[in-house]
């Protein structure tokens, strides 16, 4: 099975691009809903953090990226992986700890990576990604490749010193870097309105000499537009940008979280704000795509994810010889 | 009537009793107060695995949430300890030490010495360690050797609920900085734990099982693994003595040396990575101080020189188990004939 | 010899307070000029960073502090120590590595501390102090002592994650903390105009929800006024403040630095901006103090420092038994 | 004609030759480019002790200054290494690792394993270590045991100028993350160093001196101390073999074991703090693998379990010296009569 989604699209968003955007978001949603179900069934081990509800961010940003570009993700990384083109079957197998997984079962949900796709890994350390992204942006700059690098991080991570340092470094090195603060309102149970001393995370951009923007994270087009500007500026040597994307996560912090700490905001968001619904309404009302086309994607994606799960379950676990390999290139 | 509670409950009870006893004790950590006051939450989250749950409501203003800024809040706990409080700060997973180690090893650990004996820093840093939860490379490490290496720190690593309570109470009353390492695979294990407050002194090992053929020194969760191995070995007529140091710094070298003098054989079980590990530390100490008693090579049973793998198929191979421990013991016993 | 200077003064700055302020600054200056000379003579070991030129900051801030209050300093800590009332003779002996030193010779210039005076130590780690100060401020708040805590740090340290995290923490915990960014233009050889992505460090206050002010660091009165406001706000529960103090250091980064990286800014500053000169001009012109009074302080301080050096040189080194003590309270 | 240059110059030359050879090599660190273009400065500061001096002008755009943001710039070097560059980043003093250790041990060291063997991270982190400069507790540590403990890292600790050049060239060409630990007390020591480029493989110990009575394994600056001790001991008719592992990870265990098989005695000299140290690591390895050859207890000569003191009167006692090493050797030789 080859589960790679195309990642390079034109910026004009013709029907093909729109279908791709929708397919990306739909794939992430289906992936996460299915992992949620499978986890509840007891088949998936470890800590799993789902991205459902936040799809427009990964999709809206990554549509601007191509093979020159790199991203770093977080513990909540499935959406970023899919949007950057990581093989979905490999991802699912990884989450099940199978030898066929993206990381041969050695990494798991929190460490899915594919450097060949410029995906530097989900990360178990909050704030782990931004410094790495400065490095990828530096490499692109030194090589003159025109590449950019994107750090996705959460509202909680916006208080981590590693993140704040990286904003300054990217600015003074004038790096082609984009910092995407995904503000879903919580770090575990801790509200971002409490943990972030400013009203908005984007307010911090000024402290590090870069533009900061806030976008409605349920709106694919808003994210896409803001990211497009930031990516274009970065490619042209204009330096970094901080984009704050605001939305709600649909599931608990991790699978198993009872979520006693929040009310009915998820039901509200799913009903009224959902990025997939909104996308559908907009593109169908504008006559850019038809409901049939989108339904077709839904069906296709559902089958695709179902197949990924079936294959992941059937795949072998890594053999004992795998314990000691892959620590060094040579030792 | 003996009362059995879990390791998690034992730590919680120790915190509660000490907070009750001493108003200077405060608790802080990510999500320790998280969710307080929200619709469905009676108290607060009490940290990611709920160890401090119930304290928020009981001690208003003394259970604090923190942002994800470990340098700032672990440092704040340390600073507060120099200013008359006795903070217990939670570094969620020991693996996260890399974002705040400076405050621990260059600040807290060194104040007293650098300042000519004129500082007192009674801070406890609670943290979860150990493999086995399928939590992969960045949430499963031991790292106890790193903390044990640092002069100025004390390191406790309880292996059961009874010790957890007594060691935590000692840790809070201790005037030096303490790393209190809670093994995440032990949280749900239960033991008889007295309701009343008691302390277990640092630097006093527990002889978990007596035996005359081999000394097994094991740390944290490995104490239980060693006990399984010992049961197995008893079947083959090998009597293993098991020593649980309970604190790795200070280390009760006397008890270990005395045991080796009797048994003539040493196996050290440490789930950490092997290089510069506690297994090396204890093994080398014995090879220097009790060489004359040794009738066989010391043997170290540790994790391999690899990160902790995710897949259960690999993680189970990473962690020392009873079979590996028994194998090492047999090698030691069979040595030379 | 008791070298402690009084630290508590009224805010009105009557003649006594003004004399105290001058004496503090003069003591720091004389201490540093003398250490500079002695270091050149080869008698003083290790890394020594001098505070000459920056005296108005330590003095202007610490005049507002009393026994309830704590400060944390940096590698460039002598001035903060003196201003917070650490015994000057002990400091000098410490720098010489003597048993009579503030830290029994175990700490040296980079670790002079006196917790009994609320002086939490110079610090060899850039950005080491701000987290500790959050803790001291928290302790004061919990104890209801009315105390405040002050972190001094440099322009270089303003880019360290530990510092940035602390600003956020102090803000969301609403701590009685004051952050004093001492911008002397360089971190070693690295210009702050390059390393700090914003025009001013004070611009970062907004990113962490606190007031930020810039003051002329050669002007004792400017520092004193800004610090007074910040301390008063903190004592009243109004939360933290970031104060940026701008000036020039008169010596190299550390003793031995050839300073090829800068031009004649020091000569200019010494001639035209110097805090002691400016203070003298202002208070004598206003008729608050006479030149004779100030000259008297100069003489007194010169003798005082000379005595400190003589005693430090004559003092014994720590004995071998001192190697293993003072690691733990009990082990 | 033999040419003698210093350890500092040897490292500088290695950097220069590799930058010349491979355009992917870049250098970054605090004040590495500092002062460039200023009135009195011909090149740039080249870092606090001038090790990279001269490179700025020679390699425009490839020697970078950094703010004091070690997590960000060490992380950036690591990220850049995954993106096709071969960065050499300077962590000024090894003591500063506490503000950026996460990027080193949870990111760089674990990428390859966590990502199933699909990552390559050719980064070199240069850093100064060791006591003796009267730089006190936060600027004098060894900490090599901490880095050696971590799977995924390699650790080089050259003891002389010749090794420094060859190991640095190997480090830069290595595809794994390398901690390159430069002993600050060795910078001004000189040795014969060929002008042309050469490599010294990692994991190959150097037998500095041959001898049949005792094996002394010494690290970094301690190699010189051991040589002094050996001279002294030769006077008493004791022939010491001195082994310099050169890299502590990988460690050349074969050479050490072979030597102990011949001499029957082991003394390990490591200036770090004693607990979970390299002395323990090597001592325990030998006590496990070559027990049968040991005719005396292994002996460890290390710093004490204290921070490094400032006063020369104390620092000189902290650091293992020739007398202490010779004393340990004599104990080993005299053992059992
Ligand atoms: C350094 C570090 N501290 C704490 C954690 C534990 N942790 C994992 S996710 C998380 C919350 C992250 O919140 P946020 O950045 O908002 O991301 P979100 O989960 O909302 O996507 C925490 C505290 C961690 N993994 N790493
Ligand atoms: C974490 C850390 N990184 C680097 C250093 C080395 N260092 C000591 S002082 C200094 C410059 C500090 O500059 P600044 O904060 O502006 O203070 P200043 O020296 O100007 O007073 C540096 C880089 C250190 N001590 N700690
Ligand atoms: Mg969040
Ligand atoms: Mg400065």
TrEMBL record, chains A, C:
GO terms for biological process: pyruvate decarboxylation to acetyl-CoA. GO terms for molecular function: magnesium ion binding; pyruvate dehydrogenase (acetyl-transferring) activity. Its cofactor is thiamine diphosphate. Keywords: Oxidoreductase, Thiamine pyrophosphate. The keyword Oxidoreductase applies. Gene3D superfamilies: 3.40.50.970. It comes from Pseudonocardia asaccharolytica DSM 44247 = NBRC 16224. SUPFAM superfamilies: Thiamin diphosphate-binding fold (THDP-binding). Residues 24-320 form the Dehydrogenase E1 component domain. This is Dehydrogenase E1 component. The keyword Oxidoreductase applies.
TrEMBL record, chains B, D:
The keyword Oxidoreductase applies. SUPFAM superfamilies: Thiamin diphosphate-binding fold (THDP-binding), TK C-terminal domain-like. SMART domains: Transket_pyr. Keywords: Oxidoreductase. It comes from the Bacteria. InterPro entries: THDP-binding, Transketo_C/PFOR_II, Transketolase-like_Pyr-bd, Transketolase_C. GO terms for molecular function: magnesium ion binding; oxidoreductase activity. Residues 5-189 form the Transketolase-like pyrimidine-binding domain. CDD domains: TPP_PYR_E1-PDHc-beta_like. It holds the Pfam family Transket_pyr. NCBIfam families: PRK09212.1. This is Acetoin catabolism protein AcoB. The lineage of its organism: Bacteria, Bacillati, Actinomycetota, Actinomycetes, Pseudonocardiales.
């Amino acid at each position: 099975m080859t589960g790679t989604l195309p990642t390079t699209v034109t910026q004009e968003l013709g029907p093909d691009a729109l279908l791709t955007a929708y397919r990306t978001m739909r794939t992430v949603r289906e992936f996460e809903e299915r992992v949620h179900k499978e986890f509840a069934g007891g088949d998936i081990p470890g800590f799993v953090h789902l991205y459902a509800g936040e799809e427009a961010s990964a999709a809206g940003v990554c549509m601007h990226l191509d093979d020159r570009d790199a991203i770093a993700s977080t513990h909540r990384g499935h959406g970023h992986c899919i949007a950057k083109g990581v093989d979905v079957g490999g991802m699912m197998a990884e989450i099940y700890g199978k030898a066929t997984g993206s990381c041969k079962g050695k990494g798991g949900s929190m460490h899915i990576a594919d450097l060949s796709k410029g995906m530097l890994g989900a990360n178990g350390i909050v704030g782990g990604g931004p410094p790495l992204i400065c490095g990828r942006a530096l490499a692109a700059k030194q090589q003159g490749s025109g590449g950019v690098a994107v750090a996705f991080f959460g509202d909680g991570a916006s208080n981590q010193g590693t993140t704040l340092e990286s904003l300054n470094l990217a600015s003074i090195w004038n790096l082609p870097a984009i910092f995407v603060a995904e503000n879903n309102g919580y770090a575990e149970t801790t509200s971002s309105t409490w943990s972030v001393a400013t009203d908005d995370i984007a307010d911090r951009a000024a402290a590090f000499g870069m533009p900061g923007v806030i976008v409605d994270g349920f709106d694919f087009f808003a994210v896409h537009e803001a990211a497009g500007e930031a990516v274009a500026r970065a490619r042209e040597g204009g330096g970094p940008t901080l984009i704050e994307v605001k939305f709600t996560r649909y599931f608990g912090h991790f699978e198993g979280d009872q979520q006693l700490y929040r009310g009915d905001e998820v039901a509200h968001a799913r009903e009224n704000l959902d990025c997939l619904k909104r996308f559908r309404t907009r593109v169908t009302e504008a006559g850019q795509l038809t409901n049939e086309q989108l339904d077709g994607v839904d069906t296709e994606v559902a089958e695709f994810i179902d197949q990924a799960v079936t294959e992941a379950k059937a795949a072998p676990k890594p053999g004992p010889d795998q314990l000691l390999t892959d620590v060094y290139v040579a030792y | 009537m003996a009362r059995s509670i879990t390791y998690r409950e034992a730590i919680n009870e120790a915190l509660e009793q000490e907070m009750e006893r001493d108003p200077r004790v405060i608790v802080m950590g990510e999500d320790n107060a998280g969710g307080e006051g929200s619709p469905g939450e009676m108290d607060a989250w009490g940290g990611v695995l709920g160890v401090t749950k119930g304290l928020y409501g009981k001690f208003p203003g003394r259970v604090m949430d923190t942002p994800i800024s470990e340098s700032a809040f672990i440092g704040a706990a340390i600073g507060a300890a120099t200013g008359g409080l006795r903070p217990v700060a939670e570094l969620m997973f020991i693996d996260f030490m890399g974002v705040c180690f400076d405050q621990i090893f260059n600040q807290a650990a060194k104040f007293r010495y650098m300042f000519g004996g004129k500082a007192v820093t009674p801070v406890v840093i609670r943290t979860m360690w150990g493999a086995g939860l399928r939590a992969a490379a960045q949430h499963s490490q031991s790292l106890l050797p790193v903390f044990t290496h640092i002069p100025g720190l004390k390191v406790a690593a309880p292996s059961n609920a009874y010790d957890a309570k007594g060691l935590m109470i000692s840790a809070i009353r201790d005037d030096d900085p303490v790393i209190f390492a809670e093994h995440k695979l032990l949280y749900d294990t239960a033991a008889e734990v007295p309701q009343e407050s008691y302390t277990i002194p640092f630097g006093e090992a527990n002889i978990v099982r007596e035996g005359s053929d081999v000394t097994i020194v094991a740390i944290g969760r490995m104490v239980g693994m060693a006990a399984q191995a010992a049961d197995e070995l008893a079947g083959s007529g090998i009597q293993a003595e098991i020593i649980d140091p309970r604190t790795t710094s200070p280390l009760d070298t006397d008890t270990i040396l005395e045991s080796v003098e009797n048994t003539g054989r040493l196996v050290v079980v440490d789930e950490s990575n092997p290089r510069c590990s506690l297994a090396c530390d204890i093994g080398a100490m014995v090879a220097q101080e009790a060489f004359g008693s040794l009738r066989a090579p010391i043997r170290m049973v540790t994790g391999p020189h690899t990160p902790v793998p995710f897949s259960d198929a690999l993680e189970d191979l990473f962690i020392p188990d009873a079979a590996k421990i028994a194998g090492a013991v047999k090698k030691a016993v069979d040595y030379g004939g």
